[in-house]
Write a structure and sequence with these properties.
It is built from 20 helices and no strands. The chain has helices at 25-31, 36-45, 48-64, 76-85, 93-99, 103-117, 124-138, 144-157, 165-190, 193-204, 214-219, 227-242, 255-266, 270-274, 278-341, 348-359, 363-386, 388-392, 395-402, 417-448.
Length: 449
């Protein structure tokens, strides 16, 4: 079933419920069934020629919450089902219109179906409750049509016969107009007329590149992830902040309502937005700029996090590749130095000099490692004074504890980043040396035993 509050003859929002021309077997079985009580009541109340129309009135009113009239079009599957239930020829639209040509017959069937189903008329108390409900829903609704639907659902749930479309639409329009007046007052109290005028002129003006207006530029979704995308998002945020959008709290307008107005601008061409009345245009434009700033801020944070992760991955890959190259060069140099030291054809001092040259142990390198070891020792002393558990450890254990991870202790607050990298390199060499030394001592002890 389709609840379509509208038709060409209704005009605008003044619409009525219609059923789809093709009603599925599932819908027919679930929502349009006559039970034994219905059949007995219809057979007792109406003569043979009026039983099928009365049955259709009951089925339609039970499903739609409002009476069937002479202009309603019904699907053929429903007409065929009613004919089968009464073992008669399926009624036609023409026959129904002929029967309901007399208003007295139509009203009689409507009244009987309403009482049979258990629907009641709308009384003043229920109407007040309905108007109060619409006032609450209007705070978040994007269009009066949404309030019309909410009103019909409320009436149906409370088993109240849904009045004519003009009356329902009047309630919806009044509630929507009231909330729009409050929204305009909230905007006027927070945004000055001069700022509003500047925002309108800027939104409809062309960008420096002349390709589109600022409003079209803001409506364009972000492109794929990349450094240029982050820069463009930040540029849009900067533009909105130059208009002073970040200074508009708009606390009196619910965020869903702001998003609803923003979606109206998003779905409409800028030229059509500019043709709106000033009050409506002001509300939609202000809400669009405010929601755009909120969404762009979230997008910028997400893009910044992704960009940071990308840079971190690239830096990690570069550092790993550089370390692998450095380790490979060091292994080759160590292999060449070993061959030089084992060469019996050269004097000892000549072999040592060549080995030192291959290992790259220049005075500058030795001085750098010495300074780093000095800094490492000072950091160890400082932390042993601050950490009782570290102070109770043996010096070698404390040193190993201090050099956990890929490098040495973190001292970036007292040294530069380049000095921290140099310290990490020295600590890695020291860790390898201590590991090799502990293995050699262990082998000597086992041999002695």
């Amino acid at each position: 079933m389709r609840k379509d509050f509208g038709g060409p003859a209704a005009g605008g929002f003044e619409r009525r419920i219609a059923l789809s021309n093709r009603l599925s077997d599932f819908d027919l079985e679930q929502f349009f069934q006559l039970n034994d009580d219905d059949m007995a009541a219809i057979g007792k109340q109406f003569r043979t020629g009026h039983r099928a129309p009365a049955a259709l009135m009951v089925l339609f009113m039970r499903a739609a919450g409002r009476p069937l009239d002479r202009f309603t079009v019904l699907p053929r599957s429903l007409l065929r089902y009613v004919g089968e239930r009464f073992n008669t020829t399926a009624p036609t639209i023409a026959s129904l219109r002929a029967i309901y040509q007399r208003s007295q017959t139509l009203y009689k069937h409507q009244l009987w179906a309403k009482n049979h189903i258990g629907l009641k008329e709308l009384d003043p108390m229920a109407e007040a409750d309905l108007v109060a409900m619409l006032a609450l829903h209007a705070a978040e609704a994007s269009h009066p049509d949404d309030l019309v639907t909410s009103a019909c659902h409320w009436l149906y749930d409370h088993r109240i016969l849904i009045p004519g479309p003009r009356r329902v639409l009047g309630w919806a329009r009044d509630a929507f107009a009231t909330i729009e007046a409050h929204i305009r007052q909230a905007i006027d109290s927070e945004v000055t007329p001069a700022v509003l005028q500047r925002c309108r002129e800027s939104a409809y003006s062309l960008r420096p590149d002349g390709e589109a207006t600022h409003l079209e530029w803001l409506k364009t979704p972000s492109k794929r992830h990349g450094s240029t995308t982050v820069a463009e998002t930040l540029e849009r945020i900067h533009y909105l902040k130059t208009l002073g959008v970040h200074e508009w709290p708009l606390g009196g307008i619910a965020l869903p309502k702001q998003r609803a107005y923003a979606q109206q601008v998003q779905a409409r061409r800028p030229a059509k937005t500019r043709e709106l009345k000033e009050a409506r245009q002001t509300i939609e434009l202000v809400c669009f700029l405010r929601v755009s700033l909120l969404e762009l801020t979230d997008v910028a944070m997400h893009q910044g996090a992704r960009r940071s992760q990308q840079l971190f991955r690239e830096a990690t890959q570069k550092a790993k590749a550089s370390r692998d190259r450095s380790d490979s060069v060091a292994r080759n140099q160590a292999r060449l130095a070993r061959d030089v030291l084992r060469d019996p054809a050269k004097a000892l001092h000549v072999r040592c000099a060549e080995a030192d040259q291959l290992q790259g142990l220049a005075r500058k390198t030795v001085r750098r490692h010495r300074d780093n070891l000095w800094a490492l020792g000072g950091e160890l002393v400082r932390r042993r004074y601050e950490d009782d558990e570290l102070a109770r450890m043996d010096v070698s254990e404390a040193l190993q504890q201090l050099m956990q991870g890929d490098g040495g202790p973190f001292m970036a607050s007292r040294i530069s980043e380049a000095e921290q990298d140099s310290l990490d390199a020295t600590c890695r060499k020291l860790r390898r040396f201590l590991s090799a030394s502990s293995g050699t001592v262990g082998m000597q002890k086992n041999t002695h035993k």
